């Protein structure tokens, strides 16, 4: 079986590589020539645990191929996955420029029946636009080649994407053709041996499912952050509240951790896009608008605590930051809470010293020389007036209090992810501030 995956970003590269792992003949296509050359040589453009070894292995086996020429990959191709970016426009809607370009290119060069699958997160109704774009190109060619369109949204978590793809909770496929369903069943058969289902549905429902899933998870995060802020006012502890409600099987214990807000490439973009879709259809998604509002204000929670502690006197204070990526096990800093925090510290004249195990290069690309970067977590603590934990990387979870006491000027820790035991911290001579905790 031969497939093409258009776009070698986060979704496309993981998708193509994991399909290649099952022995499928995969061609990954991208217009970025340098990226393609790097991939051919085993240089991965993103940080994702386990992906680099899998890419190298399948390139050597000949199952995984990289090219800039889409036309060359379409001969005898049964499925084309569109995994190109859908960045948000200024109004929050998804930009479909790249998706439509891919559809037109496929229409120009396809040689036989295939299934065009939208893997990118796209607004409801995109399948109609894609179908028309392909058909328009076929009409120009005066070709009667048949094709089907499907929606197959991804549910990958950055940091565990390979495992998520190889052992999925569920696979969602929206389509309107028995022939396409047969092909998609064949393609995904190796991934459902764990007993989890392929859920076939109509295309609009599949398109909406991805947005709804991310919106629900974002809602849980913002809800808990809102409750955490109330905890601080009334003297409760959000960790106890979390345990109390998480043990209820109707609620579950996932995504109930209070912190500095969600970020990344999915939740912020998808929440905005879903709100925009509702607005365009003259419906007001009141809960999601509140979710977005809470999240934006939560990104300032550590700064506000720091500002209050120093009574607004932060000019020339040396602030150490642990963690820059929006979550552990990724170098992704899109919409990261650290960016909001750092911008506020810069504006008030604080001196910022930051360290992240993986995201330093990405941080420099975004922040330049406005931040001082440490080579390890101890270096940024030297003469620090405060430590702010922003991303809960494993190497930050155990504190060496003796070393920290020698290095830091002021022994105070602001825990943006509630990973430390506040009692233990204070017993070792440090002041401690968490999120929603006494």
Would you kindly provide a written description of the structure presented here, covering whatever features stand out?
The strands form 3 sheets. The chain has a 6-stranded parallel sheet, with helices on both faces. It has a 6-stranded parallel sheet with strand order 11-10-9-12-13-14. The chain has a two-stranded parallel ribbon with strand order 7-8. It is α/β, with parallel strands linked by helices and 438 residues long. Helix 17 (422-427) links the parallel strand 13 (412-415) and strand 14 (431-433). Helices cover 44% and strands 13% of the residues. The chain folds into 3 domains: 2-201, NAD(P)-binding Rossmann-like Domain (Rossmann fold, 3-Layer(aba) Sandwich), CATH 3.40.50; 211-297, Orthogonal Bundle (N-(1-d-carboxylethyl)-l-norvaline Dehydrogenase, domain 2); 299-433, 3-Layer(aba) Sandwich (Rossmann fold). The chain has helices at 10-21, 33-40, 51-61, 70-73, 97-109, 126-141, 161-166, 178-188, 203-234, 238-246, 267-280, 286-298, 301-309, 337-348, 360-367, 401-407, 422-427; strands at 2-6, 25-29, 64-67, 79-82, 114-118, 147-151, 171-174, 198-201, 318-322, 351-355, 372-373, 386-389, 412-415, 431-433. Helix 5 (97-109) runs parallel beside helix 6. 44% of the residues are buried. The chain is elongated and about 75 Å long. The mean pLDDT is 95. It starts with a strand and ends in a 5-residue tail after the last strand.
């Amino acid at each position: 079986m031969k497939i093409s995956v258009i776009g070698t970003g986060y979704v496309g590269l993981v998708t193509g590589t994991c399909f290649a792992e099952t022995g499928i003949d995969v061609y990954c296509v991208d217009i970025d020539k340098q990226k393609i050359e790097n991939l051919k040589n085993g240089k991965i453009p993103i940080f994702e645990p386990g992906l680099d070894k899998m890419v190298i292995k399948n390139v050597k086996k000949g199952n995984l191929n990289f090219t800039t020429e889409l036309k060359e990959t379409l001969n005898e191709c049964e499925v084309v996955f569109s995994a190109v970016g859908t960045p948000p426009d200024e109004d929050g809607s998804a930009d479909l420029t790249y998706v439509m370009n891919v559809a037109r290119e496929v229409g120009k060069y396809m040689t036989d029946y295939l299934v065009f699958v939208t893997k990118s997160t796209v607004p409801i109704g995109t399948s109609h636009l894609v179908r028309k774009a392909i058909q328009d190109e076929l009409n120009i060619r005066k070709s009667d080649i048949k094709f089907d369109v499907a929606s197959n949204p991804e549910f990958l978590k950055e940091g565990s994407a390979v495992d998520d793809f190889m052992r999925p909770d569920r696979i969602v496929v929206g389509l309107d053709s028995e022939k396409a369903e047969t092909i998609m069943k064949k393609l995904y058969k190796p991934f459902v041996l764990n007993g989890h289902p392929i859920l076939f549905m109509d295309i609009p429902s599949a398109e909406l499912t991805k947005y709804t899933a991310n919106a629900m998870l974002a809602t849980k995060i913002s809800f808990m952050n809102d409750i955490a802020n109330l905890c601080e006012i009334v003297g409760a502890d959000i960790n106890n509240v979390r345990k109390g409600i998480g043990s209820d099987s109707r609620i579950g214990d996932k995504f109930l951790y209070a912190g500095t807000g969600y970020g990344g490439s999915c939740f912020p973009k998808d929440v905005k896009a879903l709100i925009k879709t509702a607005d365009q259809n003259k419906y007001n998604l009141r809960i999601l608008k509140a979710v977005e509002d809470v999240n934006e204000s939560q990104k300032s929670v550590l700064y506000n605590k720091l500002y209050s502690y120093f009574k607004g006197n932060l000019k020339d204070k040396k602030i150490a930051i642990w963690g820059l990526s929006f979550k552990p096990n990724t170098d992704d800093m899109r919409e990261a809470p650290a960016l909001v925090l750092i911008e506020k510290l810069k504006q008030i004249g604080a001196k910022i010293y930051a360290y992240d195990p993986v995201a330093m290069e990405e941080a420099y690309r975004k922040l330049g020389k406005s931040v001082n970067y440490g080579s390890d977590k101890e270096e940024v603590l030297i003469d620090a007036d405060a430590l702010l934990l922003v991303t809960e990387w494993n190497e930050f979870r155990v504190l060496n209090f003796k070393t920290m006491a020698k290095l830091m000027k002021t022994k105070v820790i602001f825990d943006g992810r509630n990973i430390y035991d506040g009692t233990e911290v204070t017993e070792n001579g440090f002041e401690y501030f968490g999120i929603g905790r006494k």
